[in-house]
Amino acid sequence: MSAAKRKRARKVAVVGVSLSDCGRVDSATPYALHAQAARRALADSGLDRSAVDGLASAGLGTLAPVEVAEYLGLRPTWTDSTSVGGSTWEVMAAHAADAIAAGHARAVLLVYGSTARADIRAGRRTSNLSFGARGPLQFEVPYGHTLVAKYAMAARRHMHQYGTTLEQLADIAVQARANAAHNPDAMFRTPITVDEVLSGPMIADPFTKLHCCIRSDGGCAVLLAGEEYVPDTAKPPVWVLGSGTAISHTTMSEWDDFTVSPAAISGRQAFERAGVRPSDIDVAELYDAFTYMTLVTLEDLGFCTKGEGGAFVGKGRLRLTGDLPTNTDGGGLSACHPGMRGLFLLVEAVRQLRGEAGERQVRKAGGRLPELAVASGTGGWFCSSGTVVLGRG
């Protein structure tokens, strides 16, 4: 075996996290939100910007992340522009951790910002019915098959096959809002009931308005670095223990099973590589563009068996004081959802493990901080998945 193969891979930690201004941000550009989040993440880490030699960004500009790097005044020697929807950031975190462990980068900044809400409000853009009509999608778009309709169809299949009820799906939105009530940065904090979710305006059967994520502005950033930087950081490290990625389909006709997401693969990989089991996890941050997304991801990550997600989410299990606190900031259903939300999952997971979540801080028996968290992002209409297991140092 060569010396390079014998050399131990570096451990990788999240050393800085931040949010930009979020919610209703009418006076900033997406670039400004990128910069604000990046500055705050660097300040949170205590490291100088000269340590950053890697940048990962997607969703902004013609040549992302080249334009973002220029705006931030960075000249990275490692970069990633993977774009697979909402799971982009977990996939990027996996790539960055691998690069740092292999010595290809020292410190990698993941950064995102979007004014999705403000742009519509100001008339700079309109809501889109589809992602386009080229390639494989041309066979579905003429029938008005929108993104929300695809999730709605999948939810209906789960209901038909396993007896999942609308009330169980609605309870996911109720619990997300209950968590958001303890988050001063959440866009919506007023408690809601199952009846209110069910009686709301229909968006795509069976989803009413409160089954769907909110539209907000906002950005965030995460800084990962090699273990040699940890002694110089301002906060305790949160270690990247394992990750996994998977893609499934783009056309619904090529999706083998509407009740199974690619998280079934990425989750298994992440847990195996981290050397932990789903039952070891203290906090779960899951992509929740729709209530069904939360339910099926819980099943596919192994927190319950397939078809039992409806029963699993009952009895307040997802609340801050529940058996599996999930989307502790309120998630995309109540806190913020400015587009590709996956990076926000990593920020919240790190804050929970550090004990920095304020009123929404999860505590284990005896008041102990959580030790393990999982962040799992979903892209497209269950097209892709990235899962990252994090642990407190």
Automatic annotation (TrEMBL):
PANTHER family: ACETYL-COA C-ACETYLTRANSFERASE, NON-SPECIFIC LIPID-TRANSFER PROTEIN-LIKE 2. CDD domains: SCP-x_thiolase. Residues 244-392 form the Thiolase C-terminal domain. This is Thiolase C-terminal domain-containing protein. It comes from the Bacteria. The lineage of its organism: Bacteria, Bacillati, Actinomycetota, Actinomycetes, Kitasatosporales.
